[in-house]
Design brief:
Radius of gyration: 14 Å
Structural class: alpha+beta
Distance between the termini: 17 Å
Low-confidence stretches: none
Number of domains: 1
Number of helices: 6
Mean pLDDT: 90
Order of helices and strands: EHEHEEHHHH
Length: 128
């Protein structure tokens, strides 16, 4: 089962997870926080993940980071597949620059709230 690791202290990261679920993310995916027990196991088994402070998509033995993970996840959504394809066509250096720019400034952006998940949405999360 693929696992999406995200910053559990980031309201935008969490709400992105909810957005994916609400827009048809397959139930084969699960979410875990980078601060949780599942992520500790990931770091033990994949030391290269320790240097990454971003979303991590684990599909079997394959890890995708930053914009590669975001583009892959958006491509999996039927109604947004076109957006995922456009992201994949954008040079990685530009995608990762945009990702990092957002990540570095997320605490200085507009205010948002933590979405209260319903039972279906909650079923995607582990380590909670």
């Amino acid at each position: 089962m693929p696992i999406i690791y995200y910053d559990g202290n980031c309201v935008y990261c969490y709400n992105y997870a909810i957005w994916l679920i609400q827009n048809g993310l397959s139930t084969r995916y699960q979410f875990a926080t980078l601060q949780g027990e599942s992520a500790q196991h990931l770091m033990e088994n994949y030391p290269e993940a320790r240097q990454i402070d971003s979303v991590i998509l684990q599909e079997g033995d394959t890890l995708k980071f930053k914009s590669d993970a975001i583009a892959r996840l958006i491509t999996s959504l039927t109604n947004y597949k076109w957006l995922g394809i456009l992201l994949h066509l954008t040079p990685k250096v530009l995608r990762d620059f945009g990702y990092q720019l957002f990540a570095d400034n997320r605490n200085h952006m507009w205010k948002t709230h933590w979405h209260k998940p319903n039972d279906y949405e909650q079923s995607f999360f582990i380590d909670n």
